[in-house]
Amino acid sequence: LALIDPATKMLPVKVAALLLVCLTMYPHIVVGTCTKEQKNRIIVDCKKFIGHGPPHPFPRDPHAACCIAAREVPMMDMECIVDLLTAGEKKNYDENKIKGLRDFCMPRRRRQVKHLFSAVN
Where is the signal peptide (predicted)? Predict the structure, then answer.
């Protein structure tokens, strides 16, 4: 205990206070970056893909309205969309299927990869 300086005993309290100040000054980081309008567009454009029940086919066309709506959400943060769902919407739509839109609607890069391989051969 002789190694601990009495002046540094308050360090954890100061760090905690600073962290609290940062969190209150930057609430958008904690709350999320998507909007209710984006959530509503996902619900309308992806309705046939995100309902409860047996697995529905996910959108195959990256240019389909559902994928366009998913890509308009910043960083395709479907967790943020799920967080905005009301209790009624959670009864109608499968949260895991909404989260899955990120993987299914991510732009593919196959053409670039094929192009790289054809340049090597």
Answer: 1-32
